[in-house]
Design brief:
Number of domains: 2
Number of strands: 0
Strand content: under 5%
Structural class: mainly alpha
Shape: rod-shaped
Order of helices and strands: HHHH
Helix content: over 70%
Length: about 100
């Protein structure tokens, strides 16, 4: 059981974590990678689609376009997954210690 002073300190820390978590969610939601970070394969695939379209090779456009889009999606999602852990996981760890 926590003393009154410890409980107040824990409540203050939880409120601070909630504010940080909200700020983290806002930042993570709008975090976008700059286009200069695109992998070479995505850029090359995009140019290949443009050139193949100009030369009328629609079957190849479809294949290269799908592969390029899949590669871009995997690259984009990997960036979302590798962001730092949310402060919420630290708050859970803090509760386990206190409780």
């Amino acid at each position: 059981m926590l003393s009154e002073q410890e409980q107040r300190a824990l409540d203050d820390m939880e409120r601070a974590w909630e504010v940080r978590t909200e700020a983290y969610r806002r930042d993570a939601m709008w975090a976008v990678r700059p286009p200069t970070d695109l992998p070479t394969a995505v850029v090359a695939g995009s140019w290949a689609v443009i050139l193949l379209t100009l030369f009328g090779q629609m079957d190849a456009v479809l294949v290269v376009g799908l592969v390029t889009a899949l590669y871009w999606a995997l690259w984009h999602l990997k960036g979302i997954r590798t962001r730092p852990a949310s402060p919420r996981s630290d708050r859970r760890r803090l509760r386990r210690r206190a409780g």
